[in-house]
């Protein structure tokens, strides 16, 4: 025994230091942790956790037997004194070799059977015998997630509502990046790949808020993009669906919300839709999102428009910046003031005209930013007391074309010469008649509003969508108003 050397002293502090680190890392595995795969809340995650445990215990038995044999042999047959001779050396023992080939083969088969049957089961498509299936299209973006409910005509971002105990069938794809879609406690993971649809289904069996996570390194903001899956009771889910089709109450004139609404229309609505509650707005948002994306693709460096999260009923959300921060007035003010200080690599600050300043901070005063935040937080399903203030200009009453312009157009057009997303509209009355052969100024301006795709002003992106929904009277008033811009 006197030959056994003790571990050198210097190892001990290292071990002492490593122990708490290892413990801290292991603590991340407790079932309570938001992203632990052990505290499961859905059948797929549960099957996967059970399979893991099954394989783990087989591995433990193999480990104990093999390591035990090694330790036993090295103690039992160690060299005890200088006079000990080397034991007799043997080579080749058919019976032993067959044994230790067959045993691992049996173990591997035992592991393969449940693994393969689970993979098959989950690939087999969404179960149709467990309640009405909810269809969701999840789309990856740099650096956030878009969720579309085609059957309910709802678009939202970064927070997904699903009903408890009903299967949800996801179609996964991506715009410009490869993410891996993963909800650790419920199901996962499948890649979201551009130009390619992948599928996954899941069932949430407990109401609550669950973390989603991109599980594949995708770029600079990989660590800063999460999403939430909110598993609702059937009642809450139906209320959510209904709420997403209920417009918010109009802000009281003169309130911070009203000022925020105006500022949002001018500075933010080129990229963010925040009123997709009316019938038809689902299809409109999909084509608008596509137009924003085309606009960005045309000039990825200098584009002043890019596809962005839909902010309808943003005040009902729990988080900000793709699950990065809890949503409240402070965090929202921080985001609007300087998005990149919250999230590295975000395209919002890179591309929005409102951050086109020497120091990159918003061209907005602190009180303006606070008003926008107050307004966004006020966006919730309304009590139905007041109608949506936008768009119709109030049939019957005199139409305030300037107000219609500020609400719907100013986010992309200045009334002077400056380019924002589209051309500055000063002088449009004069140049309009020369744009298209045989078209009068009025005809051209009206066409620009109703069918902007018919003539694209050279060097500009084709991001403008049709505004026919404003109605004939409002469009007439807009044409008259635009011709006054000098
Ligand atoms: C050039 C397009 C663009 C403009 C203009 C723009 N944004 Fe954004 N915004 C984005 C993009 C892209 C994201 C997603 C950022 C991310 O998560 O990486 C975003 C994210 C957000 C979010 C977080 C959304 C969520 O689901 O968590 C809020 C809130 C927001 N923007 C508010 C505003 C406000 C307020 C303005 C106007 C002052 C504005 N944005 C102007 C592109 C834009
Ligand atoms: C999402 C940004 C965006 C919005 C919102 C938008 N436009 Fe445009 N608009 C553009 C762009 C970009 C162009 C130039 C490319 C083209 O011809 O489509 C343009 C072109 C035009 C033109 C032709 C200008 C010229 O010099 O020939 C007119 C007129 C016009 N828009 C009016 C409007 C009106 C009125 C509204 C509101 C009802 C509006 N736009 C809303 C982006 C937008
Ligand atoms: Cu990712």
Can you describe what's shown?
This protein has 486 residues and is an alpha+beta fold. The protein has 3 domains: 37-57 and 100-244, Immunoglobulin-like, CATH 2.60.40.420; 256-377, Immunoglobulin-like; 401-483, Orthogonal Bundle (Cytochrome Bc1 Complex, Chain D, domain 2). It contains 14 helices and 12 strands. The strands form 3 sheets. It has a 5-stranded mixed sheet, with no helix packed on it. The chain has a 5-stranded mixed sheet with strand order 4-10-9-6-7. It has a two-stranded antiparallel sheet with strand order 11-12. A hairpin with a 4-residue loop joins strand 2 and strand 3. Helix 2 (43-76) packs antiparallel against helix 3, helix 5 (256-267) packs across helix 10 (366-377) and helix 7 (329-337) crosses helix 10 (366-377). The longest helix has 34 residues, at 43-76. The radius of gyration is 31 Å and the shape is elongated. The termini are far apart. The chain binds heme C (HEC) (2 copies) and copper (II) ion. Residues 179, 214, 216, 218, 222, 225 line the site of copper (II) ion (CU).
């Amino acid at each position: 025994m006197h030959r056994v050397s003790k571990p050198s002293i210097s190892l001990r502090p290292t071990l002492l230091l490593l122990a708490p680190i290892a413990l801290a890392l292991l603590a991340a595995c407790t079932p309570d942790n938001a992203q632990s795969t052990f505290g499961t809340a859905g059948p797929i995650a549960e099957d996967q956790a059970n399979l893991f445990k099954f394989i783990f215990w087989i591995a433990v038995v193999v480990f104990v037997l093999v390591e035990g044999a090694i330790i036993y042999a090295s103690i039992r047959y160690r060299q005890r004194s200088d006079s000990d001779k080397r034991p007799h050396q043997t080579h080749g023992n058919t019976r032993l070799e067959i044994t230790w080939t067959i045993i691992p083969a049996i173990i591997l088969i035992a592991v393969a059977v449940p693994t393969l049957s689970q993979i098959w089961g989950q690939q087999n498509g969404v179960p149709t015998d467990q309640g009405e299936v909810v269809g969701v299209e999840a789309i990856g973006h740099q650096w956030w997630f878009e969720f579309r409910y085609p059957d309910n005509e709802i678009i939202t971002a970064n927070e997904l509502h699903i009903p408890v105990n009903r299967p949800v069938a996801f179609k996964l794809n991506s715009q410009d990046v490869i993410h891996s879609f993963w909800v650790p406690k419920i199901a996962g993971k499948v890649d979201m790949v551009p130009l390619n649809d992948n599928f996954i289904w899941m069932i949430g069996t407990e109401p609550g808020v669950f973390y989603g996570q991109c599980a594949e390194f995708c770029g600079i903001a990989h660590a800063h993009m999460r999403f939430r899956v909110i598993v609702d009771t059937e009642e809450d889910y139906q209320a959510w669906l209904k709420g997403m089709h209920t417009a918010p109450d109009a802000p009281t004139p003169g309130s911070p919300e009203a000022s925020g609404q105006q500022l949002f229309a001018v500075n933010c609505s080129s990229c963010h839709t925040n009123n997709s509650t009316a019938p038809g707005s689902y299809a409109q948002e999909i084509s608008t999102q596509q137009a924003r994306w085309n606009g960005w693709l045309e000039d990825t460096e200098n584009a002043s428009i890019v596809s962005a999260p839909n902010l309808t009923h943003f005040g009902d959300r729990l988080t900000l910046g793709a699950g990065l921060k809890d949503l409240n007035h402070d965090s929202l003010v921080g985001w609007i003031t300087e998005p990149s200080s919250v999230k590295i690599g975000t395209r919002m600050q890179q591309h929005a005209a409102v951050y086109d300043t020497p120091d990159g901070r918003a061209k907005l005063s602190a009180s303006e930013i606070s008003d926008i935040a107050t307004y966004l937080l006020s966006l919730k399903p309304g009590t139905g007391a007041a109608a949506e203030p936008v768009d119709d200009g109030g049939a019957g009453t005199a139409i305030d074309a300037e107000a219609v312009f500020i609400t719907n157009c100013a986010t992309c057009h200045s009334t002077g010469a400056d380019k924002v997303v589209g051309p500055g509209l000063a002088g449009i009355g004069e140049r309009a008649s020369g744009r298209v052969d045989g078209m009068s100024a009025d005809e051209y301006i009206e066409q620009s509003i109703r069918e902007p795709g018919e003539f694209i002003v050279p060097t500009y992106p084709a991001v403008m969508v049709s505004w026919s929904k404003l109605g004939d009277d409002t469009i007439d008033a807009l044409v008259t108003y635009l011709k006054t811009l000098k």
